[in-house]
Predict the structure.
Amino acid sequence: MYRWTLAPWGFHPAENNLELRGPEFRHRPETDASALTALLRERGATTVVEGLWEAIWRQDHERAAAQVEVLECLRGLDQSVFLRIYEDVEWSASNGGWRRSGEHTWQLPPSASTRLLVSSTLAKGVWQLYVAARALADETWIDLFKDDPPTALDILSGHGVVALVDAGYKSVEWSVAVLPHAGSA
C-alpha cells in the first residue's frame, strides 16, 4: 500500500512506504559503541566503572530528549534490539506487532518509533532494552543497579550483549552498559 502524508507544503510520500526503500534502507543511522559512549558523556551520564554508565535526568523535557537520543543511538547498533518489560505494559508490545522472544522479552521491530516508545511504553520505568545477536535466556537477568558491576559486565559480554539500558522507576535513572567488543566475539 502506498501511503501519503499531508504536510504544510502539500502531500508527500510517508517514511514507511516500502516501495520507496532501496536495499540499503535503514530506519536510523548506523552507530557504534564509541558513538553511544560519547553521547552518554555529552548528556551528562557518569562512569561507574569502565563500560558502565549512570544517567539521572531530573527535568521531564530534558529527560525525554536525552532518552530518545540515547535509544536512537543504541538502536543504530548493528544487532537486534530486545526489550524486557513487565506484564502490565506488555499489551503495547503484543498490539504493536513485536515478536515475543521469551518471557516478558520482545524483539523491537526496526520501524518502531523511539519517541513514541519513550513517551508511552517505557515511561513507567523498570525495563531493560538491550542489543545482541539473540535474546538472553529468561533466567539470565542482570540488574545493573544491584549486581556487582564487573561481574554484570562479564556476564553480559559472555552472552554477546553489545549495550544494555536498565531503567529505574519512572525512567528517571538509567544504568547503561556499553560493551564494544561483545558483538565481535
